[in-house]
C-alpha cells in the first residue's frame, strides 16, 4: 500500500483518487479552494423570483461509457449517482447572414439528412465523406493514444500506425485545411473550425487530427446531468469518501519534495514540516507544477503556448426564448475573431477582445436550474488569457469587463436574440476570475494550446504523475477522466 497525495480536487484528481483507493492505496487529496470540482464550477444567484443555478465550467458530457467505467472500477454504478439526459439537438448552430439553423445530433444518418435539408445534397455528401475520415482518426486515436502514456514525440513516432490511419490523421495538415479540402459549404467549414476551440486552439494552426473531437461528440452523443454538471463533482467526492480517501479543502500545496530524483511528499501553506508521500499526483496545470511546485526549466520551456480563455456572462432572463440547450451564434468573420483572441506577437499585433465574436449560449431546460417562467443563461465567448503580454489582455483594467459584457449583449441582439430588457441580473466572469478561482494560469481553459502532444502524465521525478486537462490526453471531461485511468493503471494496485 502506497501513501499517495493528490494535489487538486478537480475531476481528474478525484477520479484518480477514487481509482487508487479502490485498489487499496492510502490516498489524501489537498484542494486549495473551499469546494471540490476545479473548473467544474457552480454559482447560485438568489432573486425574489427564486434561485438561479449555473454551471460555470463544462456544460456537456460526452463519451458517457468512460464515466460508467470509472464508477464500476470503484465498485459503484453511475446511475446510482447521476441522472443523464440525452440532448437533441446537441448544439444548435446559427450562421451569419440568416438562413436555416443546423441542429446537430448523435445519429450520423439523421445529421447528414439535416445538413441536406438545410444546405443541400452536395453539403451532405461532403460531410459524409469527411465523417468516414473522422472515423478512421477516432479509432486510431482511441486505440493507440488516448489510453496509454505518451511521454515524448518519439512515443508517437514509434506507434505502429497503419497506412490508412496516417493518411487520415494527415500529419502536418491543419483542421482548417482539412475543412477546405473536404467541405464546399462555408457554414460547414465554420462548424468544423469551432471544434479547434474545444482544445483551446486556433483552427488555422490546430492539427487535422482534431476532427476526432466532433466525431466523438456526434457519434456517442451529448448529455446533460439533471441538476447540473456540477453533480459529477459531488458524485466523485462521495465515491472518494466512501472508499476512505481523505479530502482536505482549503489546503494549498506550495511545493513537491523530490530530492534525489524521487518524490518524498508535499509542503502545505501554513503547515510546518512536510506531508510524506510515496507518490504525488498533480491535478493542477502543468505550468504551475513546473514553475512553482517542482521547478523544472526543461519541462517549463514547452508550456509557453497557452490555450484560449473564456469571457462569461451569467444571466437571469425572464420569460422563455425558445433556445436549444446549447446554441452557437457565429460571426461574419471567424478569422477576425481568432486574430483578436490570439494576436500575433511576431508581428507586434496584440490580443484584444473580439468585436464580433462567436457567442455560445447554454440554456438548461431544468426546473432545478431556474424559477418557473425564467431561464438561466450561461454565455461564453472565446477570449485571450489574462495578462499583460502581447498575447494576453488585462481583464482587470477598470471598466473593460462591463463594457465588453455590454458589447456581447448587443451582438446577441444583432443576431436576433435581444434580452437586454428582460434581464433580472447579470454576472461577469473574466479569464482573470478563472485564474483566481481555479489556479489556471491566465485563465487558460485547456493549459497549452491543442495538439496531439500534451505534457506527459509521467513527471521528471520517480513517483510524480500529472492528470487533468493540461496533461495527456487533453482537456474536456472525457479526456480528463482518461488521464486519471492512465495514471491509476500505471501506479497499479496496492496488492
Automatic annotation (TrEMBL):
Entry-linked InterPro entries: Amino_oxidase (IPR002937), Carotenoid/retinoid_OxRdtase (IPR014105), FAD/NAD-bd_sf (IPR036188)
Annotated SUPFAM superfamilies: FAD/NAD(P)-binding domain (SSF51905)
Domain of life per record: Bacteria
Coiled coil: none
All copies of domain Amine oxidase, residue ranges: 12-288
Biochemical pathway: Carotenoid biosynthesis
GO aspect biological process, one term: carotenoid biosynthetic process
UniProt KW keywords: Carotenoid biosynthesis, Oxidoreductase
Molecular function as annotated in GO: oxidoreductase activity
Family: Belongs to the carotenoid/retinoid oxidoreductase family.
Name of the molecule in the record: Phytoene desaturase
Native source species: Micromonospora cremea
